[in-house]
Design brief:
The protein is an alpha/beta fold. It is built from 5 helices and 36 strands.
Amino acid sequence: MCKWGMNKMELKDVLRVNYSKDKLKAWIELLDSSFFDEVTEEDVGFLIEKAKINFGLVEWQQSDWKQILANHQPLIIAKGIPPENGEDGYLEWKITLNSSISEEEKFSFRDVTKIPSVNKGDKIATIVPATEGKEGTDVFGNPIRQKKGVGVRTKAGKNVEIEEETNVFVATAEGQLSITTKFIHVFPLYELSGDLSLETGNIDFVGSVTIRGNVGTGYSVKAKGDLFISGLVEGAFLQAGGNIVINEGISGMDKAYIKAEGNIETNYINQAKIETGNNLVVKKSILHSDCVAEGDIICQNGSIIGGSNSAGRQIEVKNVGNFAFTKTELALGINKKVSEQVEQLNEQLSALKDNQNKLVLLGNQLQKKKKQSGLNTKERIVLLKQRHSLEKVTKDIEQIQLEMTELQWTIGNFTEMSINVYGKAFGNVELNIGKYSRLLKDEHSRFKSYLKDMEIVMEPL
């Protein structure tokens, strides 16, 4: 029995057990030194036992524990084991990917675009699986769940297959490689040596398109794969199922509309509407444009002036706005396209579940009849088809639920979103993260902006 219960001052008034928010560290601290001289090792042990701290106990008795407490320093009594988070899966490329241009080549229209091409049977990439990680334990002996790694979601697209045993993507035809966050394709290639003109007309091609020249106002180019343009794009409509690379830049005159499922990369953007399913990478400036990227907007070496620029994860820019206080909007968070995807997946999921219920009902009826009187040949065939269909529907449901989980995580996850300004942000720049907004009234230099406690904060870079 602890002697302190008999005294006027109880042990809990002299010493207190405390622990960290994550429960991975526990310590004792001195509250009142009046009766401290009477404290014994047994008293400390009693407090630890009463607090039910039973894991990761350290040999505090071997230290000068009384002196540590007398100096009003925490006496560490236990250390838990933190969880080891799993590592995300990734693609290990078997080929050299190089679609960028070097400084020496950028003025040569013939060589500005290096197209990654493959032959039939070429190994493209290997899927390196995610790891599970390892569970941790807090000082109370409770398990701490680790964050499991996220597996590769990229699938085999057109003219590509996956070898199931080795998890290797292999080309099934010769062509140009097209890579997005969702698919790896190998597309046939259409190449135009020169400007898009009346002679060639608009282009709508099932593969990838390379134009070694300019695309003027009023023209339309659609590609199921990637789209490479070595020159300038004016007020044109461009659409690609893969990535779009425009080496010179976009001078849109408020008429250009550029849309890609993958990345969009260019030198500069002026008065254009841009939509990309992944990242928007601009070497110089974005001027008076409406840009939406589901991934990042990267303009580290240039300025964003005027217009509205929205990204799903991060915006990286050198300067924002200008001395004339031109209204410039930077936004992070969900966009309309993601909302539409969630809605479509919900509809698909509802239809699949209805179908699943009907198949289960049919299977139960056939199994019941099988036990009672047996099945004829036709009914046995129906039962086999039912089992196959139910298995497929169940897999489809699992896949859609997985996709919806990822999208919902994207919608609600503001922890990894930030706006990074490496130069200056001028007055009349509006920062938006989700439903929260902050208007800059004066000039700010080198900062990172993110959401904290329902407020947009800024900290120095």
